[in-house]
User: What shape does this take?
Amino acid sequence: MTAPATNAPEQTCWPGWIDDIAVARLRQSIREAHLNHAYLLYGPSGVGKAALGQVFAQVMCCTSREPGDPSVACGVCRGCRNVIRGTHPDVEVFSLESEARLAEKPGRTASLGIDTIRRLRASISLLPLESPKRVMIIEDAETLPVPAQQALLKVLEEPPPSVIFLLLADELESLLETVRSRCEGVQLRPVSKATIESVLTGTGVGAVQASEIAALSHGLPAWALSAATDAKTLQARRDEREAARAWLSSSPYDRLVAAYKLGGQYSKRRGEIARNIQSVISVLREEMYRLTTLGEPSSTPSELPFAANVTAQHVARALAASLRCLDDLERNVRPRLALEAMVLAWPNLQSQPT
Assistant: This one.
């Protein structure tokens, strides 16, 4: 028997750590040969949109698909390898990072622009070289200003038959309704903590660190994989968690002041403030777990200076209010009102300021 080549690339297709409902929708489209000309993959940053887009492109470009299931790429053919490397001639990615490289600027640009759409229109005029379809992936689509979105709309209204567009967006509401209506929307939702722990340990991360990163991930597996190899990313999330503990531990007056200030800054710091609330939710869930499953409170002291008579019901009320705040913000409720209502539901402290 011939030994397998040691330099063969790892087979990559439909990661199990991405929202399985989103994966199932795309795979069904491929199996039934009912491909839309444009898909809008949306969900919070770090949920795995870019990874899912790459796998979709890989399946489109694979030259040795599974005979019984055309939605499975082989992972080893030339087409698959080139998609993984980012060198396939029929797959093009437009993102903040790629635009910064073209502009010869370090890091990332602040937003995509009309020049991005011009390059896109020039690219889709080319015919596929190696695959039946060309795949155009537009990451960070929510950063497109209105004029650029209007230019993109013209492309989506009269798409070339040989092109499939994948728009990736963190915030669905940032895109024009007309752009959204021209795409098939596929939402990616956060996954369970157990799923993230499993994928991390599968990559060689120790059990203790995997548990910590999964707890800090807010259900975002791509973020967790990045944090496992990037100390700065992990430390930034730890700092957010400490800030959440400090907010919960502050006086009722200071809580309201912080909510008022954050409400005024919400339009400019939307993602950051959402992560702050998610960190609060994570801390409250741990407090709920301590109160309901870990036995006597004296054996598992709280990390929060709540009053001694605070019960699991009080924490549940605070948790529900924090989850409702996230939902209200997504539904465009006035940020200050949503944040103030949230903090007013949090439990009292052990001692009040004099």
